[in-house]
């Protein structure tokens, strides 16, 4: 029986630290590792580093869920390699990668795994102190010959689009994968106008990262929508389970992982993700998915970014609340304008009843909007 080992990774040196270790675990020459930020002792204790683990596990990846307790997705070398190979097949072949994501998150780790599989060395940006778009042009210039790729979250893409040199550098790449949650439509439109080849990805630590590209599953990935509209994912990239199992177990259905996301699978097999079931707002006896409202509001020219969440309401149970980042060159939109705009494509029940203009949205993990932080902030504001 193998023993789980920890590997502390520092920003700016992750490639040199992790690549040799990844090569060994992917080849089966060494036991599983869990990449963690330096001195992250609570995670080490929670994931039982130093204790036994199944021989076929290569990586244990910390999860950024809302529970606060890391579950630790256990990924085999076969799952990681299958994901990397399928990604390269979809994008047009192996290439050189830009590492601009934290290397202890699955998206950053998969950049490294793809590099190992491709036999290339990624160019790394140190994002431990934030994403500096001024470094993008030189980083892209250092990528090797042949096909060149990057993996970002939508907040990074939006920031790069505000810098002409950074946007031009991204436009030189063969593909820019965008994960960590849905990208706002204005950001996607701006990226297309800048000539950036964006690929929208959907996946998670439990599926070895992105496994659905632009709505279409990668080779070897299976999808189905459960009776309660939740998305289930199966196939070759699936994790074995959690280091710290939970109840109910989303891996209980053999060969499948039951996500907390709801969506629709059309007759041609294209997946549309509507949002997270646990983000749903119950207002006036109806259920509203925040992501659908965000999509509607982000199509307004005055809205650059948006987050929708629920706050307790004596009459409705919860009321729909929107926090928006105002687009450059526009005046802050009014609540009436936002409600009218939402009602163009959604039932008026889903339109926000409260509006807050903010300078930025709080994030958790690698670019996911932290709705809980917004709920706490504006609940406190209402009570003060």
TrEMBL record:
Q: Does the keyword Repeat apply?
A: no
Q: Tell me the NCBIfam families matching this sequence.
A: PRK07824.1 (NF005877)
> What is the protein name for this chain?
O-succinylbenzoate--CoA ligase
EC category name:
ligase
Question: What organism is this sequence from?
Answer: Mycobacterium spongiae
What GO molecular function annotation could you give as one example from this UniProt entry?
Answer: o-succinylbenzoate-CoA ligase activity
InterPro entries assigned:
AMP-bd_C (IPR025110), AMP-bd_C_sf (IPR045851), AMP-binding_CS (IPR020845), AMP-dep_synth/lig_dom (IPR000873), ANL_N_sf (IPR042099), ATP-dep_AMP-bd_enzyme (IPR050237)
Give the domain of life: Bacteria
Keywords (alphabetical) are: Ligase
State the organism's lineage. Bacteria, Bacillati, Actinomycetota, Actinomycetes, Mycobacteriales
Q: What is its EC number?
A: 6.2.1.26
